[in-house]
Amino acid sequence: MPGTDRDAGLQPERTRLAWRRTTLASSVVAVLALRAALRGSGSPTEVTGAAVIVLLWLAFLWVAHRRIRALATGRPRMLGSRSALAVVACTVALAAFAVAVIL
Predict the structure, then answer these.
(1) CA distance 13 to 20
(2) Angle CA(24)–CA(70)–CA(62) in degrees, nearest 5?
């Protein structure tokens, strides 16, 4: 029923913990890609790639932190489509840059 409060149970807590795990995994990927980028010759391309990796990681971290904070409220709102698109874009771009740095 539309006017009835629902019992969220532990779902927001599980989702919040999943966001934390995803943020940790993203941090590990960013650090490994950054490490690979900075072990090279230090060319402008490698430095630019490292800067892009850091910016993508920070963008993902910002969206994830906002979502984690929203899930801490009594009745969290749904994840917006812009936020979801930003997370997907950051994840795909970070993976693409990590592969590019390794190759």
Answers:
(1) 11
(2) 45
Residue type, 68: I
Instruction: Name the burial class of residue 101, with classes exposed (0-12), middle (13-18) and buried (19+) by CB atoms within 10 angstroms of its CB.
Output: buried
73: closest CA among 2, 26, 15? Answer: 15
Summarize pLDDT for 5-48 with one digit per residue, the tens.
555 677 778 888 888 998 898 888 888 878 877 777 777 877 78
Tokens of 25: 């995994």
Position of tokens 């850091």? 54
Q: Reply yes or no on whether the pLDDT at 1 is more than 50.
A: no
